[in-house]
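This section describes the prediction task in plain terms. A model, or a person checking by hand, is given the sequence of a single protein chain and must write out its three-dimensional structure as a string of tokens. No templates, partner chains or ligands are provided. The sample shown here is typical of the held-out split.
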Amino acid sequence: MKPSTKDLAKGTMHEVKGKIKETTGKITHSTSLENQGRAEKIAGKVQKKVGDVEKDLEK
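The expected answer:
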């Protein structure tokens, strides 16, 4: 698997995990968990962008 594809997959995974944490934090009124979820979601989006850039550079 190419590095760009790995970054895209990992980024998507982090986004999903982050969304789950964020939602769980909202439901349980845990601002800490909600903030962790937001941070992980953002990290996932960044990692996906890195994968996009790598994919463009491979062409």
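For orientation: The chain has one domain: 3-58.
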